[in-house]
């Protein structure tokens, strides 16, 4: 990516490739700077708007994130990641009608259908909502279907008022989500939400600390996710939040230049 950028310094696509490299090496401030440069050169790149919108959404710039994700969908109405991230942004703000409208949009890709189902399950822990009714048997065998079925089982237990926090510890989530470093924080977030919903606040805080140690930057999730309300009054929450806020603020400064 850096070689391509040296060969064509004005290439938005080369800047976007470099942004991917920095994102997947966990350099989010660097990725944000590259994405800003990408859009300065090529404002019509939907993927760049989507990526920067997702990052903005998670570091506390929710309104900017929503604006950029809307722009990405205008540029490419088939961008399912942008649609689901936008639904997540609306849900964080309690704008459920807007979130539901986006979730109702038919996904053409199998990966998009699985991701939409998982997000819809997760939303049942954020507000009183029905479980999605998708037929997961229509998905081909593989990680996407395995993860969707795993998530369905968790949230069906939550809906039934079950108490089974051992199902959602970080170790159990690891084989499902994989071992990529970028997914370590996601594992912690998922376990924190579901453990808390199942009533095990100690497990919820343990999972939150795992996510923070995994370089969690999603301060919007910490501040707005309704599933975390019981954790916010516990000793240790403020300390963990401050660690995430410092990280998020550094990324937000890179987004705003």
Structure, explained:
The mean pLDDT is 87. The relative contact order is 0.10. The chain contains 14 helices and no strands. The radius of gyration is 18 Å and the shape is globular. Helix 3 runs antiparallel to helix 4. With 257 residues, it is an all-alpha fold.
Characteristics of this structure?
single chain, 257 residues, mainly alpha, 67% helix, globular
Percent helix, as a range, is 55-70%
Overall average residue pLDDT = 87
Sheet having the most strands = none
- Coarse morphology: globular
Structural class: mainly alpha
- Roughly how many Å is the radius of gyration? 18 Å
What's the helix-strand series?
Answer: HHHHHHHHHHHHHH
Q: Ranges with pLDDT <50 over ≥5 residues? A: none
Strand content: under 5%
The end-to-end distance, rounded to whole angstroms, is: 22 Å
SS field, number of helical segments: 14
Number of DSSP strand runs: 0
Secondary structure layout:
Elements: H1 2-7, H2 12-24, H3 28-41, H4 46-58, H5 62-75, H6 80-92, H7 96-103, H8 110-123, H9 143-159, H10 170-177, H11 184-197, H12 201-213, H13 219-224, H14 237-256
Helix pairs in contact: 2-3, 3-4, 3-14, 4-5, 4-6, 4-14, 5-6, 6-7, 6-8, 8-9, 10-11, 11-12, 12-14
């Amino acid at each position: 990516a850096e070689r391509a950028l040296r060969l064509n310094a004005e290439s938005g696509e080369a800047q976007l490739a470099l942004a991917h490299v920095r994102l997947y090496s966990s350099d989010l401030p660097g990725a944000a700077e590259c994405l800003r440069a990408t859009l300065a050169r090529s404002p019509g790149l939907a993927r760049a708007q989507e990526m920067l919108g997702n990052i903005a959404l998670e570091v506390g710039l929710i309104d900017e994130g929503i604006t950029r994700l809307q722009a990405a969908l205008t540029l490419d109405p088939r961008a399912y990641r942008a649609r689901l991230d936008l639904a997540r942004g609306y849900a964080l703000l309690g704008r459920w009608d807007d979130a539901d409208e986006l979730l109702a949009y038919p996904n053409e890709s199998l990966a998009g259908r699985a991701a939409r189902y998982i997000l819809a399950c997760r939303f049942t822990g954020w507000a009183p909502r029905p479980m999605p009714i998708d037929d997961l048997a229509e998905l081909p065998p593989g990680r996407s279907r395995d993860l969707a079925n795993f998530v369905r089982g968790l949230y069906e237990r939550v809906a039934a008022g079950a108490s089974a926090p051992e199902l959602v510890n970080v170790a159990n989530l690891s084989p499902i989500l994989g071992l990529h470093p970028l997914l370590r924080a996601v594992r912690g977030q998922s376990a924190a939400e579901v453990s808390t919903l199942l009533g095990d606040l100690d497990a919820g805080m343990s999972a939150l600390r795992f996510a923070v140690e995994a370089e969690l930057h999603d301060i919007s999730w910490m501040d707005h996710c309704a599933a975390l309300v019981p954790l916010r009054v516990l000793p240790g929450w403020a300390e963990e939040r401050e660690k995430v806020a410092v990280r998020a603020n550094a990324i937000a400064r890179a987004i705003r230049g």
